[in-house]
Write a structure and sequence with these properties.
It is built from four helices and two strands. The protein has about 130 residues and is mainly α.
Length: about 130
């Protein structure tokens, strides 16, 4: 693709995105054609439009929560964990103290039960 054509495409995208407050870049590689159609349909139902851009047009920036993102910011956002990964991390942080407390409460009880069982076995043999 010539530099002239790339510049025309970039100008077109700039015009289309003028006034856009939220924009997200995603990689749909690996989706089947059917999955892609379903994704587009679900997005359209929610008033969201999806546009495919060639990889040869490197992202130079974006918009998130109404604030401009530089190319470095877009790259950083692309490396954020997925929603599932974030929920998993959050659940680990929530459950961690509870699991520690449970271990602290059950540990002495298990030790005592073990000693009672051992003492009972000793008396049963004697």
């Amino acid at each position: 693709m010539s530099k002239f054509v790339k510049n025309l495409m970039i100008q077109d995208l700039t015009t289309r995105w003028d006034g856009v407050e939220e924009l997200m870049t995603v990689d749909t590689t690996g989706l089947t054609a059917e999955e892609n159609v379903v994704l587009r349909r679900r997005l359209r139902e929610k008033g969201v439009s999806m546009m495919v851009i060639r990889n040869s047009l490197e992202p130079r920036g974006g918009v998130l929560d109404g604030e401009a993102l530089s190319a470095a910011d877009v790259t950083a956002v692309s490396k954020w964990p997925t929603r599932t990964e974030m929920l998993s991390t959050l659940m680990g942080q929530v459950m961690g103290p509870a699991m520690t407390l449970s271990g602290q409460l059950l540990g002495p009880g298990k030790l005592l039960a073990s000693q009672v069982k051992q003492k009972g076995e000793e008396e049963g043999e004697g």
